[in-house]
Design a protein that fits this description.
Blueprint (H helix, E strand, L loop, with lengths): L6 E5 L3 H13 L3 E5 L2 H11 L3 E5 L7 H10 L8 E5 L12 E4 L4 H15 L14
C-alpha cells in the first residue's frame, strides 16, 4: 500500500480475526501481511520485514508463545515489537512480548497499540519491557 506508515505481520489461525485486524490496520495506513500460524510467520517474517507482529496464542503447528521465543532468539527478528492477542490475560505477560491484548478486543485499541509500538520500535535494538492492555 503506497504511503503506508508501517508493516504489520498478523498471525492468527482464525481467518475472521486475521481479516478484522488487517482491515482496521489498513484503514489506518499500515501495510499488512497475514499468517495462519507460527510456522508460517517464521517463513514470512524475513521476506516481509514487519515493524510489528501480532500473535495469537493458541495456533496449530507452532503457538504464539513458542513463535515469540523463536523470534526473540533470532538476531534478525529479536528487535521487532510483538503484541500477543489472547483470550486469557489473567497471568503476567511473557517476557518475549511487548504488549498483550485480550480477546475480544476493541479494534481502535489494537490499532493505537500497534501504532505506538511501530513508532517506538523503529531502530530498536533490544526488546522493550512487557505490559498488559485491557479493553
Amino acid at each position: 500500500m503506497p504511503g503506508a506508515t508501517g508493516r504489520v505481520l498478523v498471525v492468527d489461525d482464525s481467518q475472521v480475526i486475521r481479516q478484522l485486524i488487517r482491515v482496521n490496520l489498513e484503514l489506518d495506513g499500515f501495510e499488512v501481511m497475514t499468517a495462519s500460524d507460527g510456522a508460517e510467520c517464521l517463513e514470512t517474517v524475513h521476506r516481509f520485514r514487519p515493524h510489528v507482529i501480532t500473535l495469537d496464542v493458541a495456533m496449530p503447528r507452532l503457538d504464539g508463545l513458542r513463535t515469540a521465543s523463536r523470534l526473540r532468539t533470532d538476531p534478525r527478528t529479536g528487535h521487532i515489537p510483538l503484541v500477543l492477542v489472547s483470550a486469557s490475560t489473567d497471568q503476567d505477560p511473557p517476557a518475549e512480548v511487548d504488549a498483550v491484548l485480550g480477546k475480544p478486543f476493541e479494534p481502535t485499541v489494537l490499532v493505537r497499540e500497534v501504532r505506538r509500538l511501530c513508532d517506538q520500535g523503529r531502530g530498536r535494538q533490544a526488546p522493550a519491557s512487557s505490559r498488559t492492555l485491557t479493553r
